[in-house]
Amino acid sequence: MKRTFLFLLTLAAALFLWTGCSKAAPKEADLTKVMENMKQKITNTQMMDLSSEDLMPNYGVDPKDVKQFAAYVDSTGTKGDEILLFEASDDSAAGKIEEKLSDRYHQKEIEMKDYLPEEYAMLEKCKVERDGNFAALIVSPQFEDLEQIYHNSLK
After folding, report:
1. How many other CB atoms sit within 10 Å of the CB of residue 33?
2. Is residue 22 one of the residues assigned to a domain?
3. Total tally of structural domains belonging to the chain
4. Is residue 95 part of a domain?
5. Please, what is the Cα angle at 129 between 76 and 114, to 5 degrees?
6. pLDDT tens track for 2-22
7. What is the pLDDT of residues 52-77, one digit of tens each?
């Protein structure tokens, strides 16, 4: 009886330690598909996709740090709509991309505060997010819906 109890206690402790030390599985998402789902919710009809050649000059993001991305931005310059979704090549690259997205967010704040007050009010509801190697900047009047699509797609 004592042996059985001791065995079960040892087994329970081992299982407890094993599950406590295991790492969560890395997040996965196809950002092209995520963006396609987002496009169905976006009301701004003057948006355009960006290519990898736009990353460094427009955002300071080195394409070598990017595993995959999707970018959809206002083409007129009169709206603040900008959706940038990235999966970085590793944790260090994700930190760099998050920093560049934060810089972009702050740049938009400065540009809009005095010149586009309605767009600035919309921007204040939006944010930069990072989840593992994924980083995103979603600026849109449909922010809540787009953020929901983004979060639901990260598995």
Report:
1. 11
2. no
3. 1
4. yes
5. 40
6. 554 444 444 444 444 444 444
7. 999 999 999 999 999 999 999 999 98
